[in-house]
Specification:
- By secondary structure, the chain is α+β, with helices and mostly antiparallel strands.
- It has one domain (about 1-115): Trna Endonuclease, Chain: A, domain 1 (3-Layer(aba) Sandwich), CATH 3.40.1350.
- The chain is built from three helices and five strands; from the N terminus they run αβββααββ.
- The chain has helices spanning about 1-25, 60-65, 70-85; strands at about 25-35, 40-45, 50-55, 95-100, 110.
- The chain has a five-stranded mixed beta sheet, with helices on both faces.
- The longest helix is centred in the N-terminal third of the chain and has 22 residues, at about 1-25.
- It starts with a helix and ends in a 6-residue tail after the last strand.
- The mean pLDDT is about 95.
- Belongs to the UPF0102 family.
- This is UPF0102 protein KM031_03680.
- Pfam families: UPF0102.
- One of its GO terms (molecular function) is nucleic acid binding.
Length: about 120
Amino acid sequence: MKGAVAYHAGCAAEAAVARAYEGGGRSIAARRWRGQSGEIDLIARDGADVIFIEVKQSRSHAQAAEHLTVRQMARIYHAAAEFLAGEPLGQLTPSRFDVALVDEQGRIEILENAFAA
């Protein structure tokens, strides 16, 4: 039962984050995009730029941030490279990696270009 609740909470968090990006004028190019290297929660477009978004949901934003591991970041990098291979500019496509933190109240904190920090 606990796994099902976590799954549905994660889906709801991803949907809320997608709405936040769309409300900011960005389009969602893919949800739960899966490559050979792994899955990317959301992929958005901001003009010619591609934004890879990892959504983390927990009781607080701080707890959600703690769930992101170096191993996950590496997996997301590799999956993003697979996605970019299909873009007209390939690996030269302007892109960034955001982390969207969602707390138990549904509040969203977006850390733009989070992997660069």
